[in-house]
Amino acid sequence: MTSPAFYPIGTPGQPWGGADVAVWRSRQAVRRSYAAEVASLIETLRARFDVSDYGRLDYPSGSYPLFAIKSRDWRDELPIALVTGGVHGYETSGVHGALQFVERHAAHYAGRINLLVAPCVSPWGYERIHRWNPDALDPNRSFRADSPAQESAALMRLVAPWRERVRMHIDLHETTDSDESEFRPALAARDGKPYEPGTIPDGFYLCADSANPQPAFQQAVIAAVAKVTHIAPADPDGTIIGSPVVAHGVIEYDCRKLGLCAGITDAPYRTTTEVYPDSPRATPAQCNAAQAVAVCAAIDYALAHGAG
Q: What is the pTM of this model?
């Protein structure tokens, strides 16, 4: 059943034009600081890691440097682990979980695997606590050739030299109550489609790549995170966010077909995390820790099981 949920921008049944996007963009206010909350933390890591700008987003509302954190002892013969966060800028633990992993756990992997971490792919969205970029584009549906999203294109350029050498890629995300209250209604309005209400899963889950699901890898991550926070149960119809649950806490997407970040490399082990920060059973600290633990478990599995 669909609902003609009201959204205050655009004409129902018609995709947005440029004027609608401009109205939407004018309503997006800065609510937190990328420089103070993210870039400043990255600066503190320069003493122990190689930190570089891999691009810059230039928008009329501001300019944002994009940071990558690399192992200082990078060795070409070692495999590569790629960690991405903040592809959806509003998903806070994706950003801060990635930084927590670097701060507290990355040193454990020195000399064993090369680490490449892009902790905040979408700083404009981070500041405005939004899923989209200022062009009303979802970066996590835009990882494809000639991407219209600056955020996606910049990350793909960063990763391109190592795409075939990445052994593990974990992309850190959240599913929030605002997905239903704001972002899915906005998406329906933007595309001129009826809004179809959904449910928000209470707990952590993973999205595997249906092209190479690696179920044992996914379950190793789930088992580690279950020690930190609860795993989302399936809805009564056996789905999570409308996708069939294929194993405890795991659904699957075709990452490359959908233009998802998890599909940008040929890594044999790849996954997308989803935590639920609005749960009464989880704190922000738990969400950050769950993301960091997921990264560790994913790397540990990739190291123990070679090239898959």
A: 0.97
